[in-house]
Structures are given as structure tokens and as C-alpha cells.
Amino acid sequence: MTLPVRRRPGRLLERPGFGWGEPIAAEFEDLFERMSRLLEGPATAPTALAWSPAADMRETDDAYVIEAELPGIKRDDIEMSERELRITGEYKEREREGVLRRSTRRTGWFEYQAPLPADVKADEVNASLHEGVLTVTVPKAQAAKPRHIEITES
After folding, report:
1. Can you tell me the distance from the alpha carbon of 128 to that of 137, in angstroms, rounded to the nearest whole number?
2. Residue 32 structural domain
3. Are residue 29 and residue 83 in the same domain, yes or no?
4. CB neighbours of 114 closer than 8 A, spacing ≥ 6?
5. pLDDT in tens, 67-120
6. d(Cα 82, Cα 116) in Å, to the nearest integer?
């Protein structure tokens, strides 16, 4: 049994239940891409096209530790600045053979910013990239470390 084709003026639709036609799929793809760019968050002028990788920042007694997910990125493609931890880099689009039917990978410039307190040892910042996770350790200055005071009874 064949299903009827619905036609509307100016639009070509496929048979119901068998997927969208090429013009409609292209419109949805374009709309999805524009919405994704809009929802990436507020951007500043120099990095208007940057997006932010998933990252965690935690505080220990001795340091601030930031872990950012950057799979497939090379060490040379990452730049860091002090005072305000700023990790920037670029995912370059790979060359492919054939027709790309769907892609959910982000490409282009990325940026992660985290303000650091004034009480850190900026000259002793340590960073390592292992299995796609960039770990940055920012040691605290001596004055910033919590001091435990024992209370005695009198």
C-alpha cells in the first residue's frame, strides 16, 4: 500500500512517517545551528565566536584545581594566562572524505575563564593534559591556606 503525498503551496513534503525531505531538513539544520550559537552564552568582542569547554573548579587546602575537557586537542594548541585563569585554543576541523551527514562536534575557538583570588602563587601554576582532560593546579599563597587553631579549656 502506498501512502499519499501531501503537498502544500511552495513546500514539498515527503510521505508522512518516512522522514523529512531535503528542503525541510536543511531548514531545521540551519535553525538548530543558529539556536546553538545563541545559547552558547554572552560573548565579548574579541572572542565573539568562542565557546567554553566543560570544566570543574575545586578548592583544596593547598590549591585551586581546574579540570577542563579538551579531547583531541594538542598541548601546543592551548594558551593560558595568569591572574585570571584563561584557557584558550582552537579545535580545527578535520579533513574528511565523502559527504558529512551529521556532526555534533564543536570546532573553532574555545575559551574558559575563571577569576583567581589575589592570594595565589602565579609563578608556580602547573598544568597537564592527560586523556583529553586538562588539569591546572594553582597553588595558594601561604596566607591563604586555612590555619587550624586548637582551642584549649581553661
Report:
1. 9
2. 11-40
3. no
4. 55, 57, 66, 84, 85, 86
5. 999 888 877 777 777 677 888 888 888 788 888 788 787 788 888 888 887 788
6. 9
